[in-house]
Design a protein that fits this description.
The complex is a heterodimer of chains A (162) and B (260).
Chain A: H1 2-15, H2 28-31, E1 34-40, E2 43-48, H3 57-71, E3 75-80, H4 93-102, E4 104-105, E5 132-136, E6 144-149, E7 155-159
Chain B: H1 2-23, H2 32-61, H3 65-72, H4 82-87, H5 98-101, H6 107-128, H7 134-162, H8 166-179, H9 200-218, H10 240-254
Helix pairs in contact in B: 1-2, 2-7, 6-7, 6-8, 6-9, 7-8, 7-9
The chains are: A alpha/beta (162), B mainly alpha (260).
């Protein structure tokens, strides 16, 4: 039992090296898409949940998880579950800080609070000014909205609360 | 089981066709940011379509062969897959609502259609959370999050254009007149929509409330009662669907089983 949990921890460590191809500073663990890891001898089942149903990064994420674990000698099966639906609430604090450092404003608010659908004041990830305006609800990917900072004049992506 | 499969195909076809229509704006949006917005929304719909088709395929493949063939059309290759359901069924087998297949028109008509449809979908998917098939409920749960953003975005456009310049208001009002005849079909419960959680008259009431409130705020008016265009769920489509399928299915028909 103890051995098993040590071995499972080793798998989580490997998963932390697998990055979201669209946001390469964010690991799949920080993103909150890994729902479970089950290990039986050298066979691993990783349960993941998609961020967005049409997100093209999901197929790549599955493939990268498989490649990383196979390289470490595991036989890997990826299982996808839809419920409970992924939410930005599952993104780790570390992940949010990484996003901000990368220039993407991290999600604000909690998903159960539908107020996130109203236009929020999102601080600029570059200069921290709250003098920002929404340009479009959908940015470079479905998970992001596009904002503009009126202070430093830089446009920036905001990772939407979901 | 036939009813549930038909209902899943209906939901999948709705998502696929509206997704395809929205994707036609790719590279043609009024400004870059909105071009990206509508193509991202299109992508969400293709994702929803995939989920519904995958589940439908799973259920179809559990049926005896003679039943699967009647469910999917004679030119179907079994076992069914998400791709065969999207690319190898013909017009009369498609069960999507007519409102999803009519042409985009201008930006006003495109955003208005999305507003009317996502208002409907939000209500429908909320009811589907209670569906006895947990996979249907899970897909609905996932889709609600996405549809909420589509609704927010399209509603903002109805308000902006309706409450904008004289021309933008005129365009939005014309769009309402063009589309209105296709809205009645939203509330006609298809014969195969037999799940206990469904209540189409409750959807209609909530839809009317939402649409009236937004139109009022935008200074737009609802047309007087009009003829209702219907039949999509039974495979009776407008002349437009065939053209969509011709473009969408050409590659798989001409080069069977080709992949990216």
């Amino acid at each position: 039992m103890v051995n098993n949990s040590i071995a499972t921890n080793a798998i989580w460590k490997i998963l932390e090296t697998v990055k979201d191809p669209e946001v390469p500073v964010l690991s799949v663990v920080d993103l909150g898409v890994i729902r479970a890891v089950a290990l039986e001898e050298q066979r691993v089942t990783v349960t993941i949940t998609p961020t967005y149903t049409g997100c093209p990064a999901m197929d790549m994420i599955s493939m990268h998880i498989k490649m990383a674990l196979n390289a470490a000698g595991y036989q890997t099966t990826i299982q996808t579950v839809l419920s409970p639906a992924w939410t930005t609430d599952w993104m780790t604090e570390n992940g949010k800080q990484q996003l901000k450092a990368y220039g993407i404003a991290p999600p604000m608010g909690k998903s159960f609070d539908q107020a996130y659908l109203d236009n929020l004041i999102v601080p600029c990830p570059q200069c921290n000014s709250t003098h920002t305006v929404l340009v479009s609800q959908f940015g470079s990917t479905a998970c992001k909205a596009l904002y503009k900072c009126e202070e430093c004049k830089e446009p920036f992506d905001y990772f939407k609360c979901h | 089981m036939k009813n549930e499969i038909d209902f899943l195909l209906h939901l999948a076809d709705n998502a696929l066709i509206i997704g395809h229509r929205n994707s036609e704006w790719c590279g043609h949006g009024p400004i870059l940011e909105q071009d990206i917005a509508i193509t991202n929304i299109a992508l969400d719909y293709i994702g929803q379509a995939r989920n519904f088709y995958q589940h439908a395929a799973e259920l179809i493949n559990q049926q005896p062969t003679n039943i699967s063939v009647t469910l999917t059309g004679n030119d179907m290759v079994l076992p069914a897959t998400e791709d065969s359901l999207a690319y190898l069924r013909d017009v009369r087998e498609f069960k999507n609502l007519l409102i999803t297949e009519i042409p985009n028109g201008d930006w006003a008509q495109t955003t208005l259609r999305l507003f009317l449809l996502s208002t409907f979908q939000l209500q429908l998917f909320t009811q589907l959370l209670q569906h006895s098939d947990t996979q249907v409920a899970a897909i609905a749960e996932k889709s609600i999050k996405e549809v909420s953003y589509h609704l927010k975005w399209s509603q903002d456009w109805v308000l902006r254009l309706g409450d904008g310049t004289e021309e933008s208001k005129q365009r939005m009002q014309t769009a309402i007149e063009n589309i209105w005849a296709y809205t009645g079909e939203l509330f006609i419960q298809p014969e195969f929509a037999t799940a206990a959680c469904l209540n189409y008259s409750a959807i209609q009431t909530a839809w009317n409330q939402k649409v009236s409130a937004v139109f009022e705020e935008a200074g737009l008016s609802i047309p007087p009662k009009t003829f209702v265009q219907k039949g999509g769920a039974n495979g009776m489509h407008t002349e437009h669907l065939g053209y969509i399928l011709a473009e969408m299915q050409y590659l798989q028909r001409a080069y069977p089983n080709s992949e990216w």
